[in-house]
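Whiteboard transcription, Tuesday session. T.W. wrote the structure tokens on the left side:
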């Protein structure tokens, strides 16, 4: 196992064993289009096996987070058509994290931060790509 997490090294971020090279840095290099060979030239202390483990590590984190998110989404059921204020009240009373794709949900004037303690209100922003 080449990936380690130690609170004393790089603030506990995942690094490659025996280095201070962040796994996230290598994954960003891959995302930017660099080949494994190019990364190995940049970081000769790494091996191809280590880089492949980083990719597997990222896949595992995504898989685990999706499973956790599925649990959260099914943990509290809200009646279809419920008003925003009712949904916020249910989230607060059950200490649930509230995720919504409703673009105008939780207007900050209607739900100031102090009234929604324990809940997160996330907004989904749609971006159009122009070519």
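and on the right, the sequence the group agreed on:
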């Amino acid at each position: 196992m080449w990936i380690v997490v130690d609170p004393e090294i790089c603030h506990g971020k995942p690094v490659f064993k025996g280095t201070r090279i962040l796994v996230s840095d290598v994954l960003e290099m891959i995302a930017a289009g660099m080949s494994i060979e190019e990364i190995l030239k940049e970081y000769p202390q790494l091996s191809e096996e280590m880089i492949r483990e980083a990719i597997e590590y990222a896949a595992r984190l995504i898989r685990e987070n999706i499973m956790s998110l599925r649990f959260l989404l099914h943990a509290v059921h809200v009646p279809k058509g419920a008003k925003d204020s009712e949904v916020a009240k249910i989230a607060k009373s059950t200490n649930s994290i509230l995720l919504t794709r409703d673009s105008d949900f939780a207007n900050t004037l209607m739900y100031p931060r102090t009234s929604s303690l324990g809940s997160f209100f996330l907004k989904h922003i749609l971006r159009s790509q122009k070519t």
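Someone added at the bottom: The chain has a mean pLDDT of 76.
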